[in-house]
Amino acid sequence: MATKAKIAILGASGYTGADAVRLAARHPHVEITALTANTHAGKSMADVFPHFFMLDLPKLVTWESVDWSGLDAVFCGLPHGTTQEITAAVLKANPKIKILDMSADFRLRDGATYAEWYGHEHQAPELQKEAVYGLTELYRDDITKARLVACPGCYPTATLLALVPVAKAGLIHADDIIVDAKSGVTGAGRGLKQNTLFSEAGEGLSPYSIGKHRHAPEIEQEIGVAVGGKVTINFTPHLIPMARGELCTSYVKLNGATADDLRQALADAYKDEPFVHVAPKGVVPQTQNVRGSNYVQIGVFPDRIPGRAIIISTLDNLVKGSAGQALQNMNLVLGFPETMGLEQIALFP
Ligand SMILES: NC(=O)C1=CN([C@@H]2O[C@H](COP(=O)(O)OP(=O)(O)OC[C@H]3O[C@@H](n4cnc5c(N)ncnc54)[C@H](OP(=O)(O)O)[C@@H]3O)[C@@H](O)[C@H]2O)C=CC1
Ligand SMILES: CC(=O)N[C@@H](CCC(=O)OP(=O)(O)O)C(=O)O
């Protein structure tokens, strides 16, 4: 594409939308043409996010007032449940536009599973069928051809990148996986919530949605695709007192393999992947190694219990866990080099 691609970012007054702005603003082939908000519509981006003082950005408007003609791609950083009808309206106005959805609205492939976990029938079932699951490293070819990319949640991205290659190779028992996950509080969005107040999240570690988090069926769906069968996993997320970052510890039962075999299988699977780093033996992944970057780091360790291993994976929930992966997918659907605009090194410490 010779001229710059024109993009809109829906939900730009939220955390994922703002990180999409941060990344897209420095992408050499992108022009940010429209930014939307709900309660913040009418404000400038610098009013809502003062750290954008150096950028000349469009004013925040409601999504209904955007002119979709002439746009090449749209990032959706909207609460789950709101994106289905908005996406349908956008695609009706411009059927050629590419959608990079960061919400959960199009990730589950099965309508009944969606209704069970999200409490209502899907509002755009045809689009749900059309959507491609946007975990870049697993579905690159399909994403390249897609019009609607359902970018995975932060927990599924971290977990699936750690587990899919070893489950697919039969090195672990896919029906005996325990995932213990921790997320920084930006994972819960920018809206005011009691549990993300500094006084309540700042000095504690809180498990939530124990045994029933809506990302469990998303993870099960994709491990199920990898092994060709139905699987159930045990998944417990925790809110941890840091702004951004996520770390998942997966406890697995080995199927005649060793921890070294798992590490080698992961290293082989990701040897050409620009954003997945399989740590050498003994190197412990930590959130600081990936904060602010689009990288994922994975480490494998033998368990003291014979026949078991522990896989640790970490990412930044607002980058590889949402806006970065969406931009990576935008690069694919618009034909730009996949890593363009995404090669920032982690902000350490
Ligand atoms: N935060 C994270 O780490 C991750 C989030 N996600 C998903 O991405 C999506 C966005 O998350 P996040 O950025 O954290 O959320 P935020 O709550 O920070 O932002 C939500 C955005 O959506 C706008 N909005 C809210 N309601 C409506 C509506 N009814 N119609 C139109 N716009 C609306 C808000 O506008 P206003 O501010 O003006 O009210 C705001 O711009 C969610 O689906 C989330 O689950 C996915 C992966 C990681
Ligand atoms: C800390 C926190 O609250 N995290 C969010 C997950 C963020 C995310 O990835 O949610 P989506 O599936 O909607 O994209 C949660 O547990 O619901």
From TrEMBL:
PANTHER family: N-ACETYL-GAMMA-GLUTAMYL-PHOSPHATE REDUCTASE, CHLOROPLASTIC-RELATED, N-ACETYL-GAMMA-GLUTAMYL-PHOSPHATE REDUCTASE, CHLOROPLASTIC-RELATED-RELATED. Catalyzes the NADPH-dependent reduction of N-acetyl-5-glutamyl phosphate to yield N-acetyl-L-glutamate 5-semialdehyde. Pathway: Amino-acid biosynthesis; L-arginine biosynthesis; N(2)-acetyl-L-ornithine from L-glutamate: step 3/4. This is N-acetyl-gamma-glutamyl-phosphate reductase. Its EC number is 1.2.1.38. Residues 6-146 form the Semialdehyde dehydrogenase NAD-binding domain. SUPFAM superfamilies: Glyceraldehyde-3-phosphate dehydrogenase-like, C-terminal domain (SSF55347), NAD(P)-binding Rossmann-fold domains (SSF51735). InterPro entries: AGPR (IPR050085), AGPR_AS (IPR023013), AGPR_dimerisation_dom (IPR058924), AGPR_type-1 (IPR000706), NAD(P)-bd_dom_sf (IPR036291), Semialdehyde_DH_NAD-bd (IPR000534). One of its GO terms (cellular component) is cytoplasm. The lineage of its organism: Bacteria, Pseudomonadati, Pseudomonadota, Alphaproteobacteria, Hyphomicrobiales.
